[in-house]
Design a protein that fits this description.
By secondary structure, the chain is an alpha/beta fold. Helices cover about 35% and strands about 20% of the residues. The protein has a single domain, classed as Zn-dependent exopeptidases (Aminopeptidase), CATH 3.40.630. Helix 2 packs across helix 6 and helix 3 packs antiparallel against helix 6. The longest helix is centred in the N-terminal third of the chain and has 26 residues. It binds zinc ion.
């Protein structure tokens, strides 16, 4: 009898708590930074890297911007605090749950997913971004903004997990049926292409997971790259899946 009375007394309180829960969740919406690679203005030290040419919209930057905007809209609808970025990461060193940079590869290249790794640091180039990536500055390297943020083992682990989720999702749509014919490399290994494992963007944010997506390659993937809503839905869906797995959404 006492238990029944207690249940009756508690029921309204539980109902109020259930109603209040969504408001609390939205107040703590995870921040996701979505970067349109090569979109102007450029990052100091990399401003000569204006991106690949071609693609369905005339340039890589144009494609990256369309996908970024599509993703930001979808992520916001999913309850994420999505924030668009250009090439120059502003504000410098901001916190967040996720940083994702959108790109496509030059003609003859491939689709792939890069992620932040432990050790080393950001790439240096000659001048404002030409030549071979090097983790030690060249004598003529342009000045980089400081202080660079660090990639901890925990950040690298979360980045690798998110990269895997993104790669699986992208592989599902990077198909001949969708007009893709370039190679699909999956997640870039730790010692793979430094442009994707030591990308400067990883050192301009404190986001807990940091990745870069080469959605496809110009030319051979043009019919696929034209499908911005499909690409935006797939990539933002993978980001949301990762946030839910991390219990942030
Ligand atoms: Zn790029």
């Amino acid at each position: 009898m006492l238990a029944r009375i207690m249940r009756r007394l508690l029921a309204p309180a539980l109902a109020v708590a259930a109603l209040a829960a969504p408001a609390l969740a939205s107040a703590a919406a995870p921040v996701v930074w979505v970067q349109a690679g090569h979109a102007s203005p450029g990052e100091p030290g990399y401003s000569a890297q204006t991106g690949a040419g071609g693609g369905p919209f005339g340039s890589e930057a144009a494609f990256n911007t369309k996908v970024r905007d599509d993703m930001v809209t979808r992520l916001k609808a999913a309850g994420v605090d999505a924030r668009p970025l250009v090439s120059k990461v502003m504000p410098m060193g901001a916190a967040g749950a996720t940083f994702i940079s959108i790109h496509f590869d030059e003609a003859g290249g491939a689709a792939s997913v890069g992620r932040a790794v432990v050790g080393g640091g950001e790439n240096y180039y000659h001048g404002e971004g030409t030549g071979t990536a090097s983790q030690t500055p060249y004598g003529d390297s342009g000045t980089h903004r400081t202080p660079a943020t660090k990639v901890s083992a925990a950040v690298a682990a979360r980045s690798a997990t998110l990269a895997g989720t993104l790669s699986t999702a992208l592989k599902g749509i990077h198909t001949s049926a969708n007009g893709a014919s370039a190679q699909f490399l999956g997640v870039i290994p730790v010692n793979g292409n430094a442009r994707e494992t030591h990308y400067y963007g990883y050192y301009r944010t404190k986001a807990d997971a940091r990745v870069l997506v080469e959605v496809g390659a110009a030319g051979s993937d043009d019919p696929f790259l034209r499908k911005v809503p499909l690409i935006g839905a797939t990539l933002s869906g993978a980001v949301v899946k990762d946030l839910k797995a991390r219990r942030l959404l």
